[in-house]
């Protein structure tokens, strides 16, 4: 079941899932971008304050995956998509993504690490296309609040026309 997260009640669980699942990035993304915890409580709180709404995939009253959506003027951003390590490859990410896609009537953008091949494959299988470098740089600087080094090492995917 997919339900909107209540960050006041579920903050600790969202934080735990993000940091559990993000271990997949260790040794894959540039070492100067990796840190532990991957996302601090303060960083998560900042994301929520900036308008990221988290949605949960729950089964037997346990949150197994989370994904954020952020509406930014003429685009929707999919943010922080994570599934518990123990629950991967069960379709949870796809169900969350399809739910969030249905919520948007405007183009959807997703930023992820350029070296995270599994994430890129997941999004392209779900109807997104990788944007060219020049467009990626412009979009990351306009819609995201990330360091220049992260812009250099990331990509942006966009919903294909008719997908949103």
Automatic annotation (TrEMBL):
InterPro entries: Acyl_CoA_acyltransferase, GNAT_dom. Transmembrane segments: none annotated. Keywords: Transferase. Residues 1-149 form the N-acetyltransferase domain. GO terms for molecular function: acyltransferase activity, transferring groups other than amino-acyl groups. The keyword Protease does not apply. This is Predicted N-acetyltransferase YhbS. It comes from Zunongwangia mangrovi.
């Amino acid at each position: 079941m997919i339900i909107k997260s209540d960050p006041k009640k579920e903050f600790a669980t969202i934080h735990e899932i993000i940091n559990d699942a993000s271990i997949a990035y260790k040794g894959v993304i540039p070492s100067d971008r990796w840190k532990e915890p991957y996302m601090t409580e303060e960083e998560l709180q900042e994301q929520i304050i900036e308008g990221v709404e988290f949605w949960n995939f729950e089964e037997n009253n346990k949150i197994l995956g989370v994904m954020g959506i952020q509406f930014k003027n003429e685009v929707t951003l999919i943010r922080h998509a994570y599934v518990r390590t123990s629950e991967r490859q069960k379709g949870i990410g796809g169900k969350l993504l399809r739910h969030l896609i249905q919520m948007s009537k405007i183009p959807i953008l997703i930023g992820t690490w350029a070296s995270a091949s599994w994430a890129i494959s997941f999004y392209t299988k779900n109807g997104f296309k990788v944007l060219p470098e020049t467009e990626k740089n412009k979009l990351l600087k306009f819609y995201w609040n990330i360091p220049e080094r992260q812009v250099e090492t990331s990509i942006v995917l966009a919903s294909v026309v008719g997908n949103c």
